[in-house]
Amino acid sequence: MGQIHPSSVVHKDAELADEVTVGPNCVIGGGVSIGAGTELGANVVIGGGVRIGRNNHFFANCVIGGIPQVLGLDSNSEVGGIIIGDSNTIREQVTIHPSICPGKFTKVGNDNLLMIGVHVGHDCTLEDKIVLSNYVQLSGHCRIETGVWFSGIVALHQFVTVGRWSYAAGLAGINHDIPPFLIVGGHYPPRIRGVNKRGMKRAGLSEQQQQKISEAYRKLYRCGGTMLENAKALAAEDELDENVRAMIDVIIKSSEHRFGRYLETLRH
Predict the structure, then answer these.
(1) Rounded to an integer, what distance in angstroms lies between the CA atom of residue 251 and that of residue 255?
(2) From its phi and psi, is residue 173 left (phi > 0), alpha (psi between -120 and 50) or beta?
(3) Looking at residue 188, what is its pLDDT?
(4) To which H or E segment does residue 248 belong?
(5) Which of the residues are catalytic?
(6) 3-195, which class in CATH?
(7) pLDDT in tens, 228-250
(8) How much is the pLDDT for 1?
């Protein structure tokens, strides 16, 4: 058991590893597990069934594991859980909701930064090395891949997938899937603005890999025709770079849903 402030309430069934620090006025529910080195600031609430890894830092007033914001659910409803990995920084007033389905999970990976006021809706999946700036709002069932960076007050529609190492400008409202390595801005509809060169560098891509992505962007978005037609034409080319293939796959898969959200095709 770690260092627990005497004003905090920890359920008898919660499992806290050594070197866990729990600040004043925290509430930790039953079935919670927290890994070594994790720190909870003042007034943090961790709901029942939340699993948290090592070396995470939750700042004041976070609520992790509250009942999802779905009509018909209340404190007696059976819901799923939340799994959070290692070395995440969760700033003040962040809320993360569990899956609405018993036995399933909202997931947050490793090395992510969620800034003040971020909301992660039920059944979302966040991979690794993601930055969500102040007041980013994720609706339920969204998937955010590795290295994504959102500027302030970005909002996502339900079931949207955002590809790895992409960037969304402030106030963007995203209602369809975004391929990897791109910059998106605006809202309803959001528009692809270019290639995320900083993201490609953060991903450790070689100059040759970056060039292939830039060439693919021009063929997909700057050569006329529909994006789906351009994607299928590009897919037919020989010896495609794996990163270009990932861009094409998102476009083709998202076309299976009339609003461009592939995960909607799996919702039932």
Answers:
(1) 6
(2) beta
(3) 84
(4) helix 242-254
(5) 122-123, 140
(6) mainly beta
(7) 999 999 999 999 999 999 999 99
(8) 56
